[in-house]
Amino acid sequence: MPQPDDDSQEALKRLDERLKAFKGEAKPVSGDAERGVGEGYRLLGEVIGGILGGLGLGWVFDHFAHTTPFGLVIGLLLGTAASAYAAMKSAAAGARRAVKKDGTEA
User: Fold this and answer.
1) Which domain holds residue 72?
2) Tally of domains in the chain
3) How large is the average pLDDT for residues 23-36?
4) 41-98 pLDDT, tens digit each
């Protein structure tokens, strides 16, 4: 915080030093963190896509077969099961890649 008797150049110099110290403390994000975030979004997309896909297929079945609630319910259940299976399979593959990269057993 600037003192009342400081001139503006001295205050700017102190602020610049604090900014340089702050930038020096910041750690760059590694590629592993970005890859992990990408994998998380991919898993989320698989889950949401599977559920919505199951609902869509159930709705289409209901529309043509005139079995209104049953197609949606069965589609929701099948889509949820398929997306959970796909997400678990992807997560296991990611864990195997991480173990292979680290060279340690999980």
Assistant:
1) 35-100
2) 1
3) 71
4) 999 999 999 999 999 999 999 999 999 889 999 999 999 999 999 999 998 988 888 8
- pTM for this one? 0.63
Taking residues 7-22, report their average pLDDT: 84
Question: Tokens in use for 11?
Answer: 């205050």
Residue 93 placed within a domain: yes
Q: Are 61 and 75 in contact (CB under 8 A)?
A: yes
Q: What is the DSSP letter of 4?
A: T
Which tokens is 77 given?
């259940």
Q: Say if 42 falls within a structural domain.
A: yes
> Among the residues of 1-106, which ranges form H helices?
8-25, 31-65, 68-102
Among 40, 60, 42, smallest CA distance to 50 is for 42
The kind and range of the H/E element at 10 are helix 8-25
